[in-house]
Amino acid sequence: MTCAEVRERLPDHVLAMTPETEDLQVRRHLRGCAACRAELAALREGVEIFSVAVPPTEPPAELRDRVLGTLEEEWRDARTPSAPSRLRAPWLVAAAATLVLVASVGWGLGQARRADRAQAGAASYERLLSTLGGTEFRVGSVRGVDGHDVRGSVLVYESVWGRSWGAVFLRAPETADELTATLTGPDGLSLPFEALWTKDGETHGWLVTDADVGAVDLLTIRDASGRTIATARIASA
Amino acid sequence: MLEPAGEAQLMRAFAGRDSGAARALYERYAPRVYGLGLVMLGDRAASEDLVQDTFVKLWRGAERFDAARGRLDAYVLMVARSLAIDALRRRVTESRSVRRLGTPSEADPRPGPEDVATIGDLAARARRAMTRLSAEQRSALELAYFGGRTTAEVAELEGIPLGTAKTRIHAALLRLREAMAETEEVEP
Prior knowledge:
The complex is a heterodimer of chains A (about 240) and B (about 190). With about 240 residues, chain A is an alpha+beta fold. In chain A, about 40% of the residues lie in helices and about 25% in strands. Chain A has a nine-stranded antiparallel beta sheet. Chain B is mainly alpha-helical. Chain B has eight helices and no strands. The two termini of chain B are about 15 Å apart.
Protein backbone atom coordinates (compact mmCIF):
# COMPACT_ATOMS: atom_id res chain seq x y z
CA MET A 1 0.00 0.00 0.00
CA THR A 2 1.37 3.42 -0.92
CA CYS A 3 1.41 6.51 1.28
CA ALA A 4 -1.38 8.03 -0.81
CA GLU A 5 -3.53 4.93 -0.44
CA VAL A 6 -2.90 4.82 3.31
CA ARG A 7 -3.66 8.49 3.83
CA GLU A 8 -6.89 8.10 1.94
CA ARG A 9 -7.85 5.46 4.51
CA LEU A 10 -6.64 7.28 7.60
CA PRO A 11 -9.97 9.00 8.40
CA ASP A 12 -11.69 5.62 8.61
CA HIS A 13 -8.70 4.10 10.39
CA VAL A 14 -8.54 6.76 13.07
CA LEU A 15 -12.28 6.38 13.68
CA ALA A 16 -11.89 2.59 13.85
CA MET A 17 -14.19 2.09 10.88
CA THR A 18 -11.81 0.32 8.49
CA PRO A 19 -12.57 -3.32 7.65
CA GLU A 20 -10.10 -5.58 9.46
CA THR A 21 -8.37 -6.94 6.36
CA GLU A 22 -7.81 -3.45 5.02
CA ASP A 23 -6.81 -2.14 8.42
CA LEU A 24 -4.06 -4.75 8.62
CA GLN A 25 -2.48 -3.28 5.52
CA VAL A 26 -2.79 0.24 6.90
CA ARG A 27 -1.19 -0.75 10.21
CA ARG A 28 1.60 -2.56 8.43
CA HIS A 29 2.37 0.50 6.34
CA LEU A 30 2.23 2.78 9.38
CA ARG A 31 4.81 0.74 11.24
CA GLY A 32 7.35 1.54 8.55
CA CYS A 33 6.38 5.09 7.57
CA ALA A 34 7.10 7.97 9.93
CA ALA A 35 5.39 10.52 7.67
CA CYS A 36 2.08 8.65 7.67
CA ARG A 37 2.38 8.05 11.41
CA ALA A 38 2.74 11.80 11.91
CA GLU A 39 -0.38 12.35 9.81
CA LEU A 40 -2.21 9.75 11.85
CA ALA A 41 -1.11 11.39 15.12
CA ALA A 42 -2.53 14.73 13.94
CA LEU A 43 -5.85 13.13 13.00
CA ARG A 44 -5.96 11.22 16.27
CA GLU A 45 -5.50 14.46 18.15
CA GLY A 46 -8.48 15.84 16.26
CA VAL A 47 -10.58 12.84 17.27
CA GLU A 48 -9.60 13.30 20.90
CA ILE A 49 -10.63 16.94 20.79
CA PHE A 50 -13.92 15.99 19.16
CA SER A 51 -14.59 13.31 21.76
CA VAL A 52 -14.03 15.57 24.75
CA ALA A 53 -16.38 18.14 23.23
CA VAL A 54 -19.32 15.87 23.99
CA PRO A 55 -21.21 17.45 26.89
CA PRO A 56 -20.88 15.36 30.05
CA THR A 57 -24.21 14.50 31.64
CA GLU A 58 -24.58 13.36 35.23
CA PRO A 59 -26.02 9.84 35.16
CA PRO A 60 -28.72 8.76 37.63
CA ALA A 61 -27.29 8.39 41.14
CA GLU A 62 -28.29 4.73 41.37
CA LEU A 63 -26.17 3.87 38.35
CA ARG A 64 -23.03 4.34 40.43
CA ASP A 65 -23.95 1.48 42.77
CA ARG A 66 -24.99 -0.68 39.85
CA VAL A 67 -21.71 -0.22 38.00
CA LEU A 68 -19.49 -0.58 41.05
CA GLY A 69 -21.51 -3.64 42.11
CA THR A 70 -21.06 -5.17 38.67
CA LEU A 71 -17.33 -4.63 38.92
CA GLU A 72 -17.26 -6.33 42.34
CA GLU A 73 -19.14 -9.24 40.78
CA GLU A 74 -16.70 -9.32 37.87
CA TRP A 75 -13.77 -9.42 40.27
CA ARG A 76 -15.33 -12.20 42.33
CA ASP A 77 -15.93 -14.28 39.23
CA ALA A 78 -12.37 -13.95 38.02
CA ARG A 79 -10.57 -17.15 38.80
CA THR A 80 -7.56 -15.83 40.63
CA PRO A 81 -6.73 -12.50 42.25
CA SER A 82 -4.10 -11.76 39.63
CA ALA A 83 -5.70 -13.30 36.57
CA PRO A 84 -5.29 -10.29 34.27
CA SER A 85 -1.58 -10.00 34.94
CA ARG A 86 -0.75 -13.65 34.54
CA LEU A 87 -0.57 -13.41 30.78
CA ARG A 88 2.08 -10.77 30.86
CA ALA A 89 5.00 -13.19 31.06
CA PRO A 90 6.11 -14.00 27.52
CA TRP A 91 7.08 -17.56 28.34
CA LEU A 92 3.73 -18.16 29.93
CA VAL A 93 1.92 -16.77 26.96
CA ALA A 94 3.90 -18.99 24.64
CA ALA A 95 3.23 -22.00 26.83
CA ALA A 96 -0.43 -21.13 27.09
CA ALA A 97 -0.68 -20.68 23.34
CA THR A 98 0.93 -24.07 22.82
CA LEU A 99 -1.48 -25.66 25.26
CA VAL A 100 -4.38 -24.04 23.51
CA LEU A 101 -3.14 -25.22 20.15
CA VAL A 102 -2.78 -28.78 21.39
CA ALA A 103 -6.04 -28.78 23.27
CA SER A 104 -7.81 -27.23 20.34
CA VAL A 105 -6.82 -29.83 17.79
CA GLY A 106 -10.08 -31.66 18.30
CA TRP A 107 -11.91 -28.41 18.05
CA GLY A 108 -10.07 -27.52 14.89
CA LEU A 109 -10.80 -30.85 13.30
CA GLY A 110 -14.42 -30.31 14.12
CA GLN A 111 -14.20 -27.09 12.20
CA ALA A 112 -12.54 -28.90 9.32
CA ARG A 113 -15.51 -31.26 9.20
CA ARG A 114 -17.68 -28.28 8.67
CA ALA A 115 -15.24 -27.01 6.15
CA ASP A 116 -17.74 -24.82 4.42
CA ARG A 117 -17.67 -22.81 7.62
CA ALA A 118 -13.90 -22.80 7.81
CA GLN A 119 -13.66 -19.07 7.75
CA ALA A 120 -16.05 -18.72 10.67
CA GLY A 121 -14.19 -21.45 12.54
CA ALA A 122 -10.86 -19.77 12.11
CA ALA A 123 -12.41 -16.51 13.21
CA SER A 124 -13.57 -18.17 16.43
CA TYR A 125 -10.10 -19.56 16.90
CA GLU A 126 -8.74 -16.08 16.36
CA ARG A 127 -10.86 -14.74 19.20
CA LEU A 128 -9.60 -17.49 21.45
CA LEU A 129 -5.97 -16.81 20.67
CA SER A 130 -6.25 -13.08 20.86
CA THR A 131 -6.51 -13.44 24.62
CA LEU A 132 -3.03 -14.95 24.60
CA GLY A 133 -1.22 -12.08 22.99
CA GLY A 134 -1.92 -12.95 19.37
CA THR A 135 -2.35 -10.08 16.96
CA GLU A 136 -2.84 -9.47 13.25
CA PHE A 137 -4.76 -12.64 12.59
CA ARG A 138 -5.47 -13.71 9.05
CA VAL A 139 -7.38 -16.70 7.84
CA GLY A 140 -7.98 -18.58 4.64
CA SER A 141 -10.24 -21.37 3.42
CA VAL A 142 -8.47 -24.43 2.08
CA ARG A 143 -9.95 -25.86 -1.09
CA GLY A 144 -8.86 -28.89 -3.14
CA VAL A 145 -7.48 -28.40 -6.64
CA ASP A 146 -7.68 -30.70 -9.70
CA GLY A 147 -10.66 -32.54 -8.22
CA HIS A 148 -9.05 -33.38 -4.88
CA ASP A 149 -11.54 -33.47 -2.02
CA VAL A 150 -9.70 -31.38 0.53
CA ARG A 151 -11.22 -28.70 2.69
CA GLY A 152 -10.24 -26.86 5.82
CA SER A 153 -8.92 -23.67 7.25
CA VAL A 154 -5.63 -21.96 7.90
CA LEU A 155 -4.85 -19.31 10.46
CA VAL A 156 -1.69 -17.23 10.67
CA TYR A 157 -0.95 -14.62 13.24
CA GLU A 158 1.75 -12.65 14.91
CA SER A 159 2.05 -12.33 18.64
CA VAL A 160 3.00 -9.45 20.84
CA TRP A 161 5.98 -11.52 21.92
CA GLY A 162 7.67 -11.41 18.54
CA ARG A 163 6.86 -14.93 17.37
CA SER A 164 4.58 -15.79 14.50
CA TRP A 165 2.25 -18.76 14.44
CA GLY A 166 0.37 -20.77 11.89
CA ALA A 167 -2.23 -23.48 12.29
CA VAL A 168 -3.93 -25.59 9.63
CA PHE A 169 -6.91 -27.92 9.91
CA LEU A 170 -7.85 -30.15 6.99
CA ARG A 171 -10.23 -32.87 5.98
CA ALA A 172 -8.94 -34.95 3.12
CA PRO A 173 -10.94 -38.22 3.21
CA GLU A 174 -9.59 -39.57 -0.05
CA THR A 175 -5.95 -38.94 0.74
CA ALA A 176 -3.96 -41.52 2.67
CA ASP A 177 -0.65 -39.87 1.85
CA GLU A 178 1.49 -37.99 4.28
CA LEU A 179 0.77 -34.36 3.50
CA THR A 180 2.96 -31.31 3.71
CA ALA A 181 1.93 -27.68 4.09
CA THR A 182 3.88 -24.58 3.19
CA LEU A 183 3.10 -20.92 3.61
CA THR A 184 4.55 -18.71 0.89
CA GLY A 185 4.69 -15.04 0.11
CA PRO A 186 6.32 -12.56 -2.22
CA ASP A 187 10.10 -12.41 -2.67
CA GLY A 188 10.52 -16.15 -2.23
CA LEU A 189 9.30 -16.31 1.35
CA SER A 190 8.61 -19.97 2.17
CA LEU A 191 7.63 -21.32 5.58
CA PRO A 192 7.00 -25.08 5.74
CA PHE A 193 4.98 -26.54 8.56
CA GLU A 194 7.27 -28.82 10.52
CA ALA A 195 4.82 -31.69 10.38
CA LEU A 196 1.20 -32.51 9.74
CA TRP A 197 -0.62 -35.21 11.65
CA THR A 198 -3.27 -37.26 9.87
CA LYS A 199 -5.82 -39.64 11.29
CA ASP A 200 -9.04 -40.89 9.72
CA GLY A 201 -8.75 -38.42 6.89
CA GLU A 202 -8.34 -35.46 9.20
CA THR A 203 -5.11 -33.52 9.33
CA HIS A 204 -3.76 -30.78 11.52
CA GLY A 205 -0.49 -29.02 12.10
CA TRP A 206 1.08 -25.80 13.19
CA LEU A 207 4.26 -23.84 12.98
CA VAL A 208 6.03 -21.34 15.18
CA THR A 209 8.56 -19.05 13.57
CA ASP A 210 10.58 -15.93 14.10
CA ALA A 211 9.80 -14.89 10.53
CA ASP A 212 7.25 -12.20 9.80
CA VAL A 213 4.13 -13.97 8.52
CA GLY A 214 2.54 -10.68 7.59
CA ALA A 215 3.50 -11.05 3.95
CA VAL A 216 2.37 -14.66 3.61
CA ASP A 217 -0.49 -14.92 1.14
CA LEU A 218 -0.74 -18.58 0.12
CA LEU A 219 -0.93 -21.98 1.78
CA THR A 220 -0.10 -24.97 -0.39
CA ILE A 221 -0.90 -28.56 0.58
CA ARG A 222 1.05 -31.28 -1.24
CA ASP A 223 0.83 -35.04 -1.22
CA ALA A 224 3.76 -37.43 -0.80
CA SER A 225 4.73 -37.13 -4.47
CA GLY A 226 4.91 -33.37 -4.21
CA ARG A 227 1.75 -32.67 -6.19
CA THR A 228 -0.32 -29.75 -5.06
CA ILE A 229 -3.70 -31.06 -3.90
CA ALA A 230 -5.10 -27.98 -2.16
CA THR A 231 -4.45 -24.28 -1.64
CA ALA A 232 -5.73 -21.43 0.46
CA ARG A 233 -5.49 -17.76 -0.31
CA ILE A 234 -4.72 -15.67 2.75
CA ALA A 235 -5.70 -12.01 2.61
CA SER A 236 -2.55 -10.12 1.71
CA ALA A 237 -1.13 -7.79 4.32
CA MET B 1 -6.38 16.70 35.14
CA LEU B 2 -4.06 13.85 36.06
CA GLU B 3 -0.61 13.65 34.54
CA PRO B 4 0.07 10.58 32.36
CA ALA B 5 1.93 8.94 35.23
CA GLY B 6 -1.05 9.47 37.49
CA GLU B 7 -3.40 8.04 34.89
CA ALA B 8 -1.19 4.98 34.51
CA GLN B 9 -1.12 4.56 38.28
CA LEU B 10 -4.89 4.85 38.47
CA MET B 11 -5.36 2.20 35.80
CA ARG B 12 -2.86 -0.10 37.47
CA ALA B 13 -4.77 0.20 40.71
CA PHE B 14 -8.02 -0.45 38.82
CA ALA B 15 -6.48 -3.54 37.21
CA GLY B 16 -5.58 -4.69 40.71
CA ARG B 17 -9.25 -4.45 41.77
CA ASP B 18 -8.82 -1.41 43.90
CA SER B 19 -12.37 -0.27 44.62
CA GLY B 20 -11.10 3.24 45.39
CA ALA B 21 -9.65 3.43 41.89
CA ALA B 22 -12.92 2.13 40.45
CA ARG B 23 -14.84 4.86 42.28
CA ALA B 24 -12.37 7.51 41.15
CA LEU B 25 -12.66 6.41 37.54
CA TYR B 26 -16.43 6.33 37.77
CA GLU B 27 -16.61 9.84 39.21
CA ARG B 28 -14.30 11.15 36.51
CA TYR B 29 -15.63 9.40 33.45
CA ALA B 30 -19.19 8.16 33.99
CA PRO B 31 -20.71 11.57 33.08
CA ARG B 32 -18.62 11.68 29.91
CA VAL B 33 -19.59 8.17 28.87
CA TYR B 34 -23.23 8.75 29.79
CA GLY B 35 -23.22 11.98 27.79
CA LEU B 36 -21.71 10.17 24.81
CA GLY B 37 -24.35 7.47 25.14
CA LEU B 38 -27.16 10.01 25.10
CA VAL B 39 -25.77 11.56 21.93
CA MET B 40 -25.07 8.29 20.15
CA LEU B 41 -27.82 6.01 21.42
CA GLY B 42 -30.44 8.58 22.26
CA ASP B 43 -32.01 7.08 25.37
CA ARG B 44 -31.21 6.87 29.03
CA ALA B 45 -31.51 3.11 29.53
CA ALA B 46 -29.12 2.34 26.69
CA SER B 47 -26.76 5.02 27.98
CA GLU B 48 -26.78 3.48 31.46
CA ASP B 49 -25.96 0.11 29.94
CA LEU B 50 -23.19 1.78 27.99
CA VAL B 51 -21.66 3.15 31.19
CA GLN B 52 -21.75 -0.27 32.83
CA ASP B 53 -20.36 -2.09 29.80
CA THR B 54 -17.64 0.49 29.39
CA PHE B 55 -16.39 0.10 32.94
CA VAL B 56 -16.41 -3.67 32.72
CA LYS B 57 -14.48 -3.52 29.47
CA LEU B 58 -12.08 -0.97 30.90
CA TRP B 59 -11.31 -3.27 33.79
CA ARG B 60 -10.81 -6.27 31.53
CA GLY B 61 -8.30 -4.28 29.49
CA ALA B 62 -6.89 -2.12 32.28
CA GLU B 63 -3.47 -3.68 32.10
CA ARG B 64 -3.18 -2.86 28.43
CA PHE B 65 -3.65 0.87 28.95
CA ASP B 66 -0.47 2.64 27.91
CA ALA B 67 -0.30 6.24 29.08
CA ALA B 68 2.46 6.92 26.57
CA ARG B 69 0.03 6.31 23.71
CA GLY B 70 -2.63 8.79 24.72
CA ARG B 71 -4.70 10.36 27.43
CA LEU B 72 -6.94 8.27 29.61
CA ASP B 73 -10.06 10.29 28.85
CA ALA B 74 -9.58 9.71 25.13
CA TYR B 75 -9.04 6.01 25.80
CA VAL B 76 -12.17 5.72 27.93
CA LEU B 77 -14.25 7.51 25.31
CA MET B 78 -12.78 5.36 22.56
CA VAL B 79 -13.85 2.23 24.43
CA ALA B 80 -17.29 3.72 25.06
CA ARG B 81 -17.71 4.79 21.45
CA SER B 82 -16.74 1.35 20.22
CA LEU B 83 -19.38 -0.23 22.46
CA ALA B 84 -21.95 2.34 21.39
CA ILE B 85 -21.28 1.56 17.73
CA ASP B 86 -21.80 -2.12 18.49
CA ALA B 87 -25.12 -1.22 20.11
CA LEU B 88 -26.10 0.88 17.11
CA ARG B 89 -25.34 -1.98 14.76
CA ARG B 90 -27.55 -4.25 16.80
CA ARG B 91 -30.48 -2.01 16.13
CA VAL B 92 -31.43 -3.75 12.95
CA THR B 93 -34.45 -1.67 12.16
CA GLU B 94 -32.83 1.61 12.90
CA SER B 95 -31.35 3.80 10.23
CA ARG B 96 -30.65 6.82 12.25
CA SER B 97 -28.46 9.69 11.30
CA VAL B 98 -27.13 12.42 13.46
CA ARG B 99 -29.55 14.81 11.84
CA ARG B 100 -32.37 12.98 13.58
CA LEU B 101 -30.71 13.29 16.95
CA GLY B 102 -32.06 16.79 17.25
CA THR B 103 -35.68 15.67 17.26
CA PRO B 104 -36.10 13.37 20.23
CA SER B 105 -39.44 11.74 20.90
CA GLU B 106 -41.25 11.77 24.23
CA ALA B 107 -40.52 8.08 24.66
CA ASP B 108 -36.89 8.79 24.07
CA PRO B 109 -36.19 11.76 26.30
CA ARG B 110 -33.06 13.77 25.88
CA PRO B 111 -31.31 15.46 28.75
CA GLY B 112 -32.43 18.98 29.45
CA PRO B 113 -30.04 21.79 30.26
CA GLU B 114 -30.48 21.06 33.95
CA ASP B 115 -28.97 17.61 33.37
CA VAL B 116 -25.78 18.91 31.94
CA ALA B 117 -23.00 18.92 34.48
CA THR B 118 -20.41 21.60 34.87
CA ILE B 119 -18.33 21.74 31.77
CA GLY B 120 -14.61 21.39 32.20
CA ASP B 121 -12.17 23.77 30.65
CA LEU B 122 -10.90 21.24 28.19
CA ALA B 123 -14.38 20.36 26.99
CA ALA B 124 -15.30 24.02 26.71
CA ARG B 125 -12.24 24.72 24.60
CA ALA B 126 -12.94 21.67 22.49
CA ARG B 127 -16.44 22.94 21.85
CA ARG B 128 -15.11 26.33 20.90
CA ALA B 129 -12.77 24.58 18.49
CA MET B 130 -15.80 22.83 17.02
CA THR B 131 -17.26 26.18 16.00
CA ARG B 132 -14.34 26.61 13.64
CA LEU B 133 -15.56 23.76 11.48
CA SER B 134 -17.76 24.37 8.48
CA ALA B 135 -21.27 22.94 8.68
CA GLU B 136 -20.31 20.33 6.08
CA GLN B 137 -17.19 19.29 7.95
CA ARG B 138 -19.03 19.04 11.22
CA SER B 139 -21.88 17.05 9.75
CA ALA B 140 -19.53 14.55 8.12
CA LEU B 141 -17.52 14.16 11.30
CA GLU B 142 -20.61 13.73 13.45
CA LEU B 143 -21.97 11.04 11.17
CA ALA B 144 -18.66 9.21 11.29
CA TYR B 145 -17.98 9.61 14.99
CA PHE B 146 -21.41 9.47 16.58
CA GLY B 147 -23.16 7.47 13.90
CA GLY B 148 -20.36 4.94 13.52
CA ARG B 149 -20.46 5.44 9.77
CA THR B 150 -17.64 4.71 7.36
CA THR B 151 -16.60 7.44 4.96
CA ALA B 152 -18.41 5.55 2.21
CA GLU B 153 -21.61 5.62 4.25
CA VAL B 154 -21.12 9.28 5.06
CA ALA B 155 -20.77 9.97 1.34
CA GLU B 156 -23.99 8.12 0.62
CA LEU B 157 -25.94 9.78 3.42
CA GLU B 158 -24.69 13.23 2.50
CA GLY B 159 -25.06 12.64 -1.22
CA ILE B 160 -21.47 13.58 -1.93
CA PRO B 161 -18.58 11.79 -3.66
CA LEU B 162 -16.53 9.44 -1.48
CA GLY B 163 -13.42 11.55 -1.95
CA THR B 164 -15.27 14.61 -0.71
CA ALA B 165 -16.45 12.78 2.42
CA LYS B 166 -12.92 11.66 3.19
CA THR B 167 -11.55 15.13 2.60
CA ARG B 168 -14.17 16.72 4.85
CA ILE B 169 -13.46 14.39 7.76
CA HIS B 170 -9.72 14.64 7.27
CA ALA B 171 -9.83 18.42 7.11
CA ALA B 172 -12.22 18.64 10.06
CA LEU B 173 -9.90 16.66 12.32
CA LEU B 174 -6.88 18.74 11.36
CA ARG B 175 -8.89 21.94 11.78
CA LEU B 176 -9.92 20.91 15.28
CA ARG B 177 -6.32 20.31 16.19
CA GLU B 178 -5.27 23.70 14.88
CA ALA B 179 -8.16 25.49 16.54
CA MET B 180 -7.43 23.82 19.86
CA ALA B 181 -3.80 24.89 19.64
CA GLU B 182 -4.91 28.45 18.96
CA THR B 183 -7.10 28.47 22.09
CA GLU B 184 -4.07 27.31 24.08
CA GLU B 185 -2.10 30.26 22.80
CA VAL B 186 -4.83 32.74 23.62
CA GLU B 187 -5.62 31.45 27.10
CA PRO B 188 -3.08 31.25 29.90
